[in-house]
């Protein structure tokens, strides 16, 4: 490539070309000067990345360091399947191989992460002035293998256990960050 893919500067003897170690595109030094850890691609030391990739890599690192542990530990929710009025108290967690959302209660479900099409976090407490809201639940839509139809599950944080309510809110916040990160990674 003869020019920087960000600022269109022409490469020559003085302006050298650099490759982003995440996306592989060619950039000048100014557009690809950030060195950020990239452990998911097995780099031991921080590597050169463009600004866009560096931001995503930083978010990924934060996710793996913080939110992943919360998701794998799990939290308790009332889970309603489809349009049913009946809900079941279940522990929801991410599987150890990070490929399934596992729900355990009287029933048992394993939802493959790749089959999840939408995640909507339900909140309360939003004020018009921009005050903080808190997560109280989530609606998840996914495809059951062998079917083209979407199945919906609604997760609601339990009001009965005050200590579990905080854990559930943390789990929902981690799930929200995970889905944002997933969609950003897919877009690249």
UniProtKB/TrEMBL annotation:
Full protein name: ZFY21 protein
Residue stretches in coiled coil: none
Keywords from the named record: Metal-binding, Zinc, Zinc-finger
Organism: Oreotrochilus melanogaster
A GO molecular-function descriptor: zinc ion binding
Residues in FYVE-type domain copies: 1-53
Family matches, as InterPro entries: FYVE-type_Zinc_Finger (IPR052113), ZFYVE21_C (IPR032031), ZFYVE21_C_sf (IPR038632), Znf_FYVE (IPR000306), Znf_FYVE-rel (IPR017455), Znf_FYVE_PHD (IPR011011), Znf_RING/FYVE/PHD (IPR013083)
């Amino acid at each position: 490539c003869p020019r920087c893919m960000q600022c269109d500067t022409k490469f020559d003897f003085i302006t050298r070309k650099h490759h982003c170690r995440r996306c592989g595109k060619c950039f000048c030094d100014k557009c690809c000067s950030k060195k950020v850890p990239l452990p998911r691609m097995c780099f031991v030391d921080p590597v050169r990345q463009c600004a866009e990739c560096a931001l995503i890599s930083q978010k990924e690192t934060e996710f793996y360091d913080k939110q992943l542990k919360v998701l794998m530990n799990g939290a308790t929710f009332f889970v309603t399947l489809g349009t049913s009025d009946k809900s079941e108290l279940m522990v929801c967690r991410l599987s150890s191989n990070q490929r399934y959302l596992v729900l355990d209660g009287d029933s048992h479900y394993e939802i493959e992460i790749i089959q999840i099409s939408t995640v909507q976090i339900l909140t309360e407490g939003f004020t018009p002035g921009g005050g903080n809201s808190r997560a109280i639940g989530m609606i998840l839509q996914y495809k059951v293998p062998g079917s083209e139809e979407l199945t919906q599950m609604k997760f609601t944080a339990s009001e009965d256990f005050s200590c579990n309510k905080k854990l559930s809110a943390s789990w929902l916040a981690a799930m929200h960050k995970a889905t944002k990160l997933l969609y950003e990674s897919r877009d690249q």
